[in-house]
Amino acid sequence: MAGAQANEGPPSRGAVEAPAGSAVARNGQLAVCGERLCNERGRAVQLRGMSSHGTQWYERCLTDGSLDALAQDWGADVLRVSTYVQEGGYESDPERFTRIAQRVVDQAVERGMYAVIDWHQLDPGDPNENTELAKRFFTDMASRYADQPNVFYEIANEPSGVEWADIKSYAEEVIPVIREHDPDGVALVGTRAWSSLGVSEGADEQEVVDDPVDADNVMYTFHFYAASHDERYLEALSRAADQLPVFVTEFGTQDAAGEGENDFDAAQRYLDLMAEKGISWTNWNYSDDERSGAVFKPGTCDGDQWSGTEVLKEAGVWIRERVKG
Ligand code: IDC
Prior knowledge:
The protein is α/β, with parallel strands linked by helices. The protein has helices at 23-27, 55-58, 64-73, 94-110, 131-144, 164-181, 192-195, 206-210, 231-241, 264-277, 314-324; strands spanning 31-33, 36-38, 48-51, 78-84, 114-120, 151-154, 186-189, 218-225, 246-252, 280-284. The strands form two sheets. It has an eight-stranded parallel beta barrel with strand order 3-4-5-6-7-8-9-10, surrounded by six helices. It has a two-stranded antiparallel ribbon with strand order 1-2. Bound molecules: ligand IDC.
C-alpha cells in the first residue's frame, strides 16, 4: 500500500492562507446547502473556471505562468485537474500522477482558487472497475488537503453503459474513504451516460432524484457540448437544478468530441441557465491541443505568454470573457 507515504510531501500540508481578494479568501470552506453550493457564511455561490486536459498529455500547460493567468487575467474561481485513469494515465504510474495532481492543486491553493480533483475515468465506463485505484488516489489527495478549504473530489468523470444503481454503490464505497481524511470536502458524483443525467441513454434526472447517494455534501455532475446537445439536455439540467445540487464540471461550445465549429448561441443559453440557477462550472479545456475546444493556440504551452487574447483560439476568447463575468 502506497498511501500518503508514496509522495514526497507530508500527509497533510497544513492550512495555506489564500491571497486577499481571491475566491477562497472570500468564500472559505464551501458546503452543499439544499440544491446549492454555499460559502462559509451560508450564502449561495457560483464558481466559474476551467478544466485542464489530461495531465499525461498537457502537464506543460499547467505552469506558474499559466495558472497566474487563469487566476489573475481570467479571474477564475476554480481549476479542475484531470487525472485520467487509462490512456497512459494514473494506472500506468500511480505515484507520478499523484505527484502531478498534487503539484497542480498546490498551485491552485497558492493562488486562492478552488480545485476539482477529477478522477478522469472514461473507458471503461463502469467506475467500479477502478475502485481500488480510486481509493488509493483519493486517500493520498484527501490526506494532503484535509486542512484546506479548497478542494472538491470528483470521483467519476463520465460513467457509461452502467446503471445509476452501480454508480451510486461506487460512490457509497469511495466517499467514506475520502471523508475519513477530509470530512468536509464536497464530493462530485458523475451521472449515467457520460454525465448527462442519463439523457444520452434514454433516462433522465429522475433516477437520481428517486435514489440519491447516501452521503452528505454531495453534488451531481452534468456535462454538455453545446453543438451536439440540444434542448432535451438543457431541459434536463434545468429540472435537475431545482431538485439536486448540480455542478457542471465539463462543457464545450463545440461537438461532443470537443471539436468542430463553435455554437456560441446554444452555449450562451446554457450559461444563462447556469447563472440563473447558481450552477458552478468548469469549461473543457485549458490546453493547446489542436481541437477547437482547447483554449490556447497550438504551441502556446511551449512559450511563456499566457495572458490576454492573442494566445487564444475563438472558443478561448469567448470563454475567458465569461469566466471574467
Ligand atoms: C477528449 C480530448 C481528446 C482526447 C480524448 C481522449 O478532447 O484530445 O483524445 O478525450 O479520451 C469528454 C471527456 C473528455 C474528452 C472530451 C472531448 O470527459 O475526456 O476529451 N469529452 O471529447 N466527454 C465529452 C467530451
